[in-house]
Amino acid sequence: MRGLFALVTLFALSAPSAVRAGSSCIAFDTTWNLLAFGFNGKDYNAGTSDTWASGSAADITASGRPPFNGQATKCYLSEFNNAIYVLGADTSQPAAIYIYDASAKSWSTQTVTAGGFDPTSFEAILDHDTNFFYALSKGEVWALDMGDLKAAKSDAAVWSDQGAADITTTNYDPVMGIAQNHIYFFGVPNVAAGNCPIYVIHFAAWQPTPQAYGNFPDSHGQATSFFLDSGVQQEIAFIPDDGSHVYIVNVETNTTQTLGGPATVDAAATYFASTTALVQLASSGAVSWMPYSASDASANSAAKWSAVQNLAAVAPPSGGSSTGGSSAGSGSSTSGTGAKTSTKAGGGSPATGSGTPTGTGSGSNPSGTGASAASRVVVGSGTALGLVAVALALL
Ligand SMILES: *[C@@H]1O[C@H](CO)[C@@H](O)[C@H](O)[C@H]1NC(C)=O
Questions:
Q1: pTM surpassing 0.85?
Q2: Bigger pLDDT: 128 or 346?
Q3: Where is the signal peptide, in residue numbers (predicted)?
């Protein structure tokens, strides 16, 4: 294994400034334009999903941007501020948070006091209501207040330790989703498939027992939340590393839709969702998406993945095919990039789970803004594996 990681390191160091899921990122702004950062040294606005099939994404590269040279860059949308927060995009300032004001199209750099927080090893979500980051790192929960920032403030933002996580974190590579001001953890050791332990942000407390959502595997993977135009996010897409399915977990009804997996099976891919699209950034730099409807499960079952062509036109993926076409959403399809695991996840038929929709929201929410959404994109974790696969593929 050590040899493999040495190889990974070598590969990572020698790679040209290509698009990689680990150093590039995708995010949406609040009018659901797809932004792509760190694509061959540039940033792009690919517009809304109705424009992705042809043409060229707009170059929005501007001064003050990070170098996008990290290994686990993470981008988050602060919906109230129409700002993208970029973490881990500058190895010379690993804790810095770069802020892209999507309205002003300008960058600034927020200094951060990391304290005991390791900015090179964490997963995090951005809570919509409070605009706090919450991270899990080395067994501890950490929080950082982003205020109403769409540009950096003069004093440092501070990571503060919220105490030990109330879940098994040994050998746990965190997978976190945000919805209803709660954090949902996937693939936690000693927690049954289909269940998530929950951290309740406004009470800074863990629910005593995991919540059951239906049918998804106990696996590492990636999670990202669907936004709403206003109001709390209620659904999280969970994509296990084997890419067999996309699971959409609804935290109102506590049910799960089981959809076909992405066309590109890639454990190192990252994801970001708008209100109606789930987008994948694969290790190759290929960006593809599937449409999603919060109200039409049968449309979701039939949804196909397609390339974001206007982005590929200006920032072609490395190592060949731009995934061109679309693929029907059937389980474990592939098209060959990056890390592809062979395990097959349990999932099966659509729309399992039970429970009746009722308002949930957990009766907390002192922070005022009422219903809201929150964003997250998960990077990291699978990245090393993905790079191994990429490195091996290139040898
Ligand atoms: C869904 O799960 C949450 C979190 O455990 C719980 O508070 C809520 O009552 C559940 N709702 C339904 C409809 O089961």
A1: no
A2: 128
A3: 1-21
